[in-house]
Amino acid sequence: MRVAVRHHTRYSYGSPAKLVLQLLRMTPRNHDGQTVKSWRIVPNCDGILKGGEDPFGNLTHMLSLAGPVSEIDIDVEGVVETEDRHGVVRGTFEKFPTELYLRETPLTVADAALKEFAADTTAQAGGEPLDMLHCLLVGIFSSVQFDTAPTFVTTTAAEAFVLKRGVCQDLTHIFIACARHLGIPARYVGGHMFRNDGVIAQEAGHAWVEAHVEGLGWVGFDPTNGICPTDAHVRVAVGLDYLGAAPVRGARQGGADEKLSVAVEINQASLQRQS
After folding, report:
1. Cβ–Cβ contacts within 10 Å for residue 274, how many?
2. Rounded CA gap, 145 and 215, in Å?
3. 3-class DSSP state for residue 267?
4. Helices 129-143 and 168-181: crossing angle, nearest 10°?
5. pLDDT at site 271
6. Reported confidence tier of residue 44, pLDDT bands at 50, 70, 90
7. In degrees to the nearest 10, what's the CA dihedral of 146, 90, 28, 151?
8. Which residues lie across from 218 on neighbouring strands?
9. Closest CA to 206 of 168, 240, 261
10. How many CA atoms lie within 13 A of 271 on its CB side?
11. What are phi and psi of 192, to 5 degrees?
12. For the chain, which domains are there?
């Protein structure tokens, strides 16, 4: 599939900022089953954009703006060619041993309720990691409802599990917390997903999990949709949790009353034919 991505981010400030620094993780890398055909980042503001790479191997861009800054617009667009690899992810750029992804973070702490849920949900898997992960996928998809209202970017896995509601970030954190408790390395994946229901405009990007299975490698699980990632998924960035893979993170001097708006369009790109 050829997936076309358009992502618009706008920051506005009630009073101008003197200095703004934004770290952008918005550019996908090639790997088996994913080839970036075109991609560009266009900040509609007078600043410096410098490419780089973070510790997890994500492609980054640092945007530096000297004030006064009242508004920032960042447009990202590109086309990615994808193949359905049944969730198996290979050919990725890896900097760390898989054991790193057993590390607990404040957003992915497994409390008593999550530990009990993980044990009960995977009891029938007989200790086989891949079967355990599929049990978690079904269990979380069945137990936690997608809802954009009750949670925030700071909501932890334990808090979202109590609510039994949340966005894709929350379901992903719940999955990661459970998997790590069971001794399976797991990481957060930020990206995009083409929806097959005809909805093109989306309010944000998508998120899912990659877990490491001995002898198979990294395998993706999308608990929001109850499936393994397909050719509809575009993988952009990975981290221990949302904070390590967030599309935009930054700092500023001044700039009170910051407001953020995001608009995303994910569609199928038409093939260009040469005559």
Report:
1. 3
2. 33
3. strand
4. 140
5. 58
6. confident
7. 20
8. 89, 212
9. 168
10. 5
11. -140, 160
12. 2-81+247-268 (2.60.40.2250), 85-245 (3.10.620.30)
**pTM for the whole structure:** 0.94
Which tokens belong to 213?
A: 């299975």
Residue-wise pLDDT for 234-249, tens only, equals 999 999 999 999 999 9
Placement of tokens 């999955």 in the chain? 175
Q: Name residues whose C-beta falls within 8 Å of residue 190's C-beta, 6 or more positions apart in sequence.
A: 25, 205, 206, 207, 236, 237, 238, 239, 242, 245, 246, 247
- DSSP letters spanning 85-129: -TTEE-S----S-GGGGG---GGG---HHHHHHHHHHTGGGTT-H
Q: Which of 1, 83, 74 is nearest to 40 (CA)?
A: 74
> Is residue 42 a contact partner of residue 75, using CB atoms and an 8 Å limit?
yes
- Both tokens of 115, joined, read 């530990």
Q: Which residue has the tokens 């640092």?
A: 62
Cα 169 from Cα 208, distance rounded (Å): 8
- N- to C-terminal Cα separation, the chain: 22
Task: State yes or no: pLDDT of 216 exceeds 90.
Answer: yes
Residues 76-93 have a mean pLDDT of 96
138 phi and psi angles, rounded to 5 deg = -70, -40
12 beta partners: 71, 259
DSSP calls for 208-245: EEEEEETTTEEEEEBTTTTB---TTEEEEEEESSHHHH
Question: Please, are residues 231 and 1 in contact by the beta-carbon 8 Å criterion?
Answer: yes
194 and 267 in contact (C-beta within 8 Å)? yes
Segment holding 172, helix H or strand E = helix 168-181
- 48 has pLDDT over 60: yes
Largest CA distance in the chain: 63
d(CA 264, CA 132): 34
